[in-house]
Amino acid sequence: MTRLYDDPASFTEDMVAGFVAAHPRYVRPVPGGVVRSRRGRQGKVAVVTGGGSGHYPAFCGVVGPGFADGAVIGNIFTSPSSEDAYSVGRAADSGGGVVFSFGNYAGDNMHFGLAVERLERAGIRAHNVVVTDDVASAPVEERSKRRGVVGDFVVFKVASAAAEEGYDFDEVVRVAEHANDRTRSLGVAFDGCTLPGQDEALFHVPDGKMGLGLGIHGEPGVSERDMPSASELAKILVDGVLAEAPEGATPRVTAILNGLGATKYEELFVVWGTVSRLLAEAGVEVVEPEVGELVTSLDMAGCSLTLTWLDPELERLWSAPADTPAYRKGNAVTVSEPESTEVVESAPIDEPIVVVAPAEGQATAATVVRALHSVADALRDAEDELGRLDAIAGDGDHGRGMTKGSAAAVEAADAVLAQGVGPAAVLVAAGDAWAAKAGGTSGALWGAALRSFGDLLPDDRPATAEDLAAGAAAALGAVQRLGRAEVGDKTLVDALIPFVDALKDAVADGSRGRDAWQQAAQEATRAAERTAELTPRTGRARPLAERSVGTPDPGATSLALALSEIAGVLTGEGVH
Amino acid sequence: MTRLYDDPASFTEDMVAGFVAAHPRYVRPVPGGVVRSRRGRQGKVAVVTGGGSGHYPAFCGVVGPGFADGAVIGNIFTSPSSEDAYSVGRAADSGGGVVFSFGNYAGDNMHFGLAVERLERAGIRAHNVVVTDDVASAPVEERSKRRGVVGDFVVFKVASAAAEEGYDFDEVVRVAEHANDRTRSLGVAFDGCTLPGQDEALFHVPDGKMGLGLGIHGEPGVSERDMPSASELAKILVDGVLAEAPEGATPRVTAILNGLGATKYEELFVVWGTVSRLLAEAGVEVVEPEVGELVTSLDMAGCSLTLTWLDPELERLWSAPADTPAYRKGNAVTVSEPESTEVVESAPIDEPIVVVAPAEGQATAATVVRALHSVADALRDAEDELGRLDAIAGDGDHGRGMTKGSAAAVEAADAVLAQGVGPAAVLVAAGDAWAAKAGGTSGALWGAALRSFGDLLPDDRPATAEDLAAGAAAALGAVQRLGRAEVGDKTLVDALIPFVDALKDAVADGSRGRDAWQQAAQEATRAAERTAELTPRTGRARPLAERSVGTPDPGATSLALALSEIAGVLTGEGVH
């Protein structure tokens, strides 16, 4: 278990501070992560990796010459915010644009996607290469839905070496995607890991059993089997990965036998003895393999085999030198051109453009801000209870994420309200701040929902009941587009859809806005309670679906709570 | 826990095979360990590290240019045999002699000591540098009794870099001992690790507690404390090590914050943040620190801080490049002179010189061999029971070690008996084989006991009762000299002393040899049973002293069993 921490809430910040203190030759901190201590040569494409932390040496351990230009560092097992990714990308850019590469997880896709949009708006070319190597996470026909695991390491390395060699932006993207196309992983887990400050592991595998294909955050795998011998495991991994050999590939591969944290080097070498024999027997030639810890999950017990089918280009890039805190190869320090010693300022963040609204808009904005305050207060009071609900099937961070996100939203909203803006600007600022500070999937969803809702509130007249209903429908659309949750998946959508439907119906029946909202919020509360009967949508944060039956969904519960608080403010202010 | 293995009995061999398969560019196997795949330049001093395995990347992970020339690889947490060390030393030698460096443990001292003697007899200069950095394992006045832990890594690195630079033999020894003099470590453990094939950890630390100074094999520490925060731990470690700063040292150090296996990188960085701040506040400047896993103990939970006070020579050698499977620094591959590509044969083992004995001596030798067969059979039958006894306070390998050792002794004895030798030559061959194959402390003790006993058996006349008594006394002397156990320490000495005393008394009273041996063996059996009342001598293999009260000592038990078997053979053969 994870035992060493000061304040669990600042674990990631403390970890980054210690990491930077240990490796000042390689990295310097910027908001949201780290970049090389010395910027790459002018015009070089910057390769920026990232994702949630807890996977060291992935991702910040591989920043340095020959490897990544920067790493975006989210909280443990939590995607970084779009602001984090934007900030690191901006700081890493040397004028050649930014290629982000990360594993395929919903939260990362959202936040890196938003970061690419922001970088492009700031005039920096940017693109995401999403790694999808985990053969256990989706069938081969749906490779794009597969999770990214240790293949991240190969794709980052190849893309980084290409950028170091002087490939242009499109060529870096091409070879990174090519590396991903040629890379397959299969993993097993023997036991879970413990998040800092928690007493219980995120999940458990029963004694004497092995989870085949279990994800690195405990995502459901393919099957649970009896614990095999080392040789049997080697055969399972080799057979599983070779069965997915890409078409037309030569039988020349590189391989990573990766330990997740508590499955140690000696055991990995015992397994590797058989893996290397089986690969040789299958006619596969292995080039510069790695046996060790490259992508961990705190102290999770388990391991995985990754193969990348090489061609001469991939082999050259895989073998190229690198010099980073956790991974060194060959004579990297002499390879890159002399680096600039320019000290780069912390990444500037986009200044919002302030549009002063008419008095009606400012009045609506003030109501919105009061509602946000009420929501933030209620979420803070409910933090422990929401955390408890979330811990049953997830990682227990929902309460903390909602508290951090709503507090940041209030602060940002207060600041722009004082500048005289209307409700849309308030909600855009609040939504961005929420997503930036909360991180994780729910942070992204709440950020998008507030933005979309705000877009439909008028600046130049009081908001009507119809405006509220249209805004709610837009927020629902944004949430569904980003989160892809469907009815019955046991997410906040299961409370949001009944709310939006009830609001629309009440408004169509002629209710005033405050009354319609009140009725719809009550409907959302009932719907949130009914989620106790559902089995949750499985996925990253919810490896233990069945455990939550009988418990309402934390996301639906916090949404219903927020909607009720807003109803109280609307009623108290006599909103029509 | 350690989960991945095929046959636990061949875990180390399987591990070495996989390690070599993963890193053929760096290492090749020789009997007893590995050496660089390409020999160092002619005349270079060879630095050979080693010890029990289970500590990767220590020790075999650091073989390569700029670092070690070879590593002797014992079984998990068990010292390699003298034959292992001799074989690796011989293979690593490039004509400049061999400097062994290892942590200070009784078994390692014995076996590496014997290996040095054998290498010197073979005309190869050799010396042992014993690392003693663990401040918790003995008071400062007895530094030479301290255990070696992560300081191993610093001493090996410095000695290796010196050898690579061209230092001569005496200078390599000098700077290695100097590095040890300047190095201090303090460690903590949060939980034990599990040996391959075992269901239970070697030891446990109670939940919420921390063992301060607990050794890397579970040796007793200084105290058990409540689990501290990361910052509190950092202060404990920094204060503990700084209190031991060597006299006259400059405030410039290198540092290793080492994880034992299950205490992961993220946690280490959190601790390092405070360690680096506290060191700075104490006016200590840190040069090229390492934060990660350098000396592990399988999946033990815990960490340690090591400081080496630098002078310009030590700093240069610590910073020098290295290129090994698990540790790379700078541009090592260009630093060493072009290496010979000579393929080195597996190390030849000394051929024993055969001296044919007179008929009387051959007859005694035949009796000795029959007694050895009887002992080996009995030990094999008792293997499980001896293992069970040993598991109560130790690592449960006593039965296996005795079975392997005695089987090897029988095989060697049979071979030399067929050549017509006398009892001394039989027992020397048997003793060497026992020590070589059994490994561990008991292997070394039995090997020495057989050799010493044999030295006093005549070749040219039948052995008398007085010969047996003198031989037994010599064996006891060898065991006490090597093992340093005293009466009441709950070791085989507690059965051997009563045996030797009873044998001497019976012989003095005029008993025939077979009768005296029979009486003395019975006394040994009673004495072995009485060891149940003792608390064992604590140490490497026996972290859980108090647990064994009520259980007889496995070493005393197996000794008494062997002595009884010999009594049976002597009686059956009518020995006078």
From TrEMBL, chains A, B:
EC top class, as a word: transferase
A GO BP entry: phosphate-containing compound metabolic process
Gene Ontology CC, one term: cytosol
Single Gene Ontology MF annotation: glycerone kinase activity
UniProt cross-references to InterPro entries, sorted A to Z: DhaK_dom, DhaL_dom, DhaL_dom_sf, Dihydroxyacetone_Kinase
Keywords, alphabetical: Kinase, Transferase
EC code(s) of this entry: 2.7.1.29
Name of this protein: Dihydroxyacetone (Glycerone) kinase protein
Gene: dak
